[in-house]
């Protein structure tokens, strides 16, 4: 009888435990089936191309100037240090998203429109999710404006150099935004993977041509180049440029969320930042040795061979145009989430994304130069790097 009572005493717990195990088992089977149906997700190499395309264009044309401001050896050291730091933070950010997917599979193994803010929310509460959301939104919006301005500026310079045509810069901004608008209607990165491929290809060609053009200009320009005196203000401006050149993190969780195997994002991070360092370093060194203090906002305008200059202009412009689609997408998805817009394509998405592009265009039309906006908004104020450990997410 005593054994019977003990059996009855513990029986409910045994039954409940079995029910819970069965429920977890069924949920795991369901999630595995969902994962199997995700055939169109990004592979880790394609995700790597998205990461490179997210950062390479704007940083490529501005980094030689940062090398002048920081000094040769200190500039190279800073670039290498930033590569290591940002590679590490990118890997950490990716691991955090994997933690969320494992801890709350029913929520985060579906398509998530705001992965970065969700990490903040799960780690420190709703207030941190809101803080991260604001920082990411302003960063993405500011970067989109800068890239639109830079692309329009390159088109303006090319038309003036080749055809002696001086089209109003404001008109070019409107034309460019209008042409980009239909492509921004695509839902998420896996729907416009070709943009990343084109962006990386054009940037690679631009790097090769900038190096060739700078070497051809060396004998002519090196004898006239000079270096400015070292100033701490210039040094910190150089740090700001490097932060921008390597700071594409706000878009990374959105890219990772579209991967077939998000656990492989660490591979994407390692390869992408290695590629970036190999792209940036030769352009910075050769530009430093050839042009010196004559460099201003963009290395392109310092190239003396017109045909090289204009081809580089075209390559960088194409890169920026396709990168605008990548950078602006997380912000568009966030706004759609706020207004509860369906994931499927429809007129509501068209209205929301048209309104966002109109807002980007309005800000671009009111900014006379992309330099001040680049220095103030995109780099110094909102380069947030928030990542959360296992303990905050409930792991030991």
TrEMBL record:
Domain named Amino acid transporter transmembrane: residues: 43-377
Top-rank taxon: Eukaryota
Protein name per the record: Aa_trans domain-containing protein
Presence of the UniProt keyword Transmembrane helix in the record: yes
Predominant localisation class: membrane
Sorted UniProt keywords: Membrane, Transmembrane, Transmembrane helix, Transport
Localization annotation: Membrane
GO cellular component, one term: membrane
Membrane-spanning intervals of the chain: 42-66, 72-93, 167-186, 192-218, 230-249, 269-291, 311-331, 351-378
Entry annotated with the keyword Cell membrane: no
Organism: Meloidogyne graminicola
């Amino acid at each position: 009888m005593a054994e019977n009572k003990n059996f009855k005493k513990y029986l409910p717990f045994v039954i409940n435990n079995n029910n819970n195990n069965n429920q977890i088992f069924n949920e795991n089977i369901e999630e595995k089936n969902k994962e199997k149906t995700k055939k169109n997700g990004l592979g880790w190499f394609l995700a790597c191309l998205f990461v490179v395309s997210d950062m390479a264009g704007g940083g490529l044309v501005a980094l030689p100037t940062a090398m002048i401001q920081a000094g040769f050896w200190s500039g190279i050291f800073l670039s290498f240090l930033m590569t290591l730091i940002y590679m590490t933070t990118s890997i950490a950010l990716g691991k955090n998203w994997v933690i969320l997917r494992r801890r709350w599979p029913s929520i985060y193994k579906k398509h998530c429109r705001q992965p970065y803010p969700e990490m903040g929310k799960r780690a420190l509460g709703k207030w941190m999710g809101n803080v991260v959301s604001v920082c990411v939104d302003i960063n993405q919006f500011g970067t989109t404006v800068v890239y639109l301005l830079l692309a329009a500026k390159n088109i303006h310079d090319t038309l003036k150099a080749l055809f002696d045509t001086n089209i109003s810069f404001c008109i070019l901004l409107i034309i460019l935004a209008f042409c980009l608008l239909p492509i921004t209607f695509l839902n998420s990165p896996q729907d416009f993977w070709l943009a990343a491929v084109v962006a990386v290809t054009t940037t690679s060609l631009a790097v090769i041509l900038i190096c060739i053009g700078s070497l051809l200009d060396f004998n002519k320009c090196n004898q006239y180049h000079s270096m400015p005196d070292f100033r701490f203000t210039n040094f910190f401006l150089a740090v700001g440029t490097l932060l921008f050149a390597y700071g594409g993190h706000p878009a990374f969780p959105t890219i990772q969320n579209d991967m077939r195997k998000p656990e492989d994002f660490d591979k994407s991070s390692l390869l992408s930042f290695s590629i970036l360092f190999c792209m940036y370093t030769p352009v910075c060194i050769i530009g430093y040795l050839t042009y010196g203090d004559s460099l201003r906002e963009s290395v392109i305008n310092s190239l003396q061979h017109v045909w090289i200059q204009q081809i580089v202009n075209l390559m960088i412009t194409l890169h920026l145009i396709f990168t605008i689609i990548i950078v602006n997408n997380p912000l568009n998805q966030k706004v759609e989430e706020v207004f509860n817009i369906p994931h499927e394509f429809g007129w509501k998405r068209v209205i929301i994304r048209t309104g966002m592009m109109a807002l980007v265009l309005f800000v671009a039309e009111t900014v006379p130069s992309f330099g001040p906006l680049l220095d103030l908004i995109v780099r110094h104020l909102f380069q947030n790097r928030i990542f959360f450990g296992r303990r905050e997410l409930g792991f030991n």
